[in-house]
Amino acid sequence: MAHSPLYVKALPLQELNDVEAIKTEVGTGNILIVRITPLAKKSVDETKLAITELTDHVKSIGGDIARLGEERIVITPPGVRIWRRETAAAEASIPAASFREETLRGTG
Fold first, then answer.
1. Do 75 and 65 form a contact (C-beta atoms < 8 A)?
2. By the 8 A CB rule, do 36 and 42 touch?
3. What is the mean pLDDT of the segment spanning 64-72?
4. Which of 9, 28, 27 minimizes the C-alpha distance to 73?
5. 106 pLDDT band (50/70/90 cuts)?
6. In the prediction, which pLDDT does 27 show?
7. How far is CA 102 from CA 27, 92, 93, in A?
8. Residue 96: pLDDT above 90?
9. Which of 27, 24, 10 has the alpha carbon at shortest distance from 68?
10. Torsion angle, CA of 83/71/10/24, rounded to 10 degrees?
11. Percent of the chain residues past pLDDT 90, beyond the cut
């Protein structure tokens, strides 16, 4: 069975209407690097609204979203996680045995 190719795409967020196109792209499995500066220069409130809408959507489909510097965000589809230094450090500080025990007991 042939799989359709997945892409890493760079897209600008120029207006609030661009949110739907971004949702569609991540829904098809693409990884997106979104430049938020064009919209942020026009309206900080619309930028916050767009990012909130994208965050809610991406989390609802099992994807991931993170800030990438001052001007960009990265959005990944389900099955692709963004490595975060804080997450990696927190996971490393939990001994694997105690994590498994807590999970088995339903407390983790």
1. yes
2. no
3. 94
4. 9
5. very low
6. 94
7. 34, 16, 15
8. no
9. 10
10. 80
11. 69
The kind and range of the H/E element at 67 are strand 64-68
Give the DSSP H or E segment for 87. Answer: helix 85-92
Q: Which of 88, 82, 84 is nearest to 63 (CA)?
A: 82
| Amino acid symbol at 72 | R
What's the fold here for domain 8-82?
Answer: Translation Initiation Factor IF3 (3.30.110)
pLDDT tens for each residue of 38-63: 999 999 999 999 999 999 999 999 99
Domains of the chain by residue range: 8-82
Reported as half-sphere exposure (CB side, CA atoms, 13 A), residue 97 has a value of: 0
Residue 57: CB atoms within 10 Å:
18
Instruction: Give the sign of the dihedral formed by CA 27, CA 49, CA 43, CA 78.
Output: negative
User: Cα–Cα distance between 32 and 7 in angstroms, integer?
Assistant: 8
pTM: predicted TM-score of the whole model, two decimal places: 0.75
* Cα–Cα dist 12/20, whole Å: 13
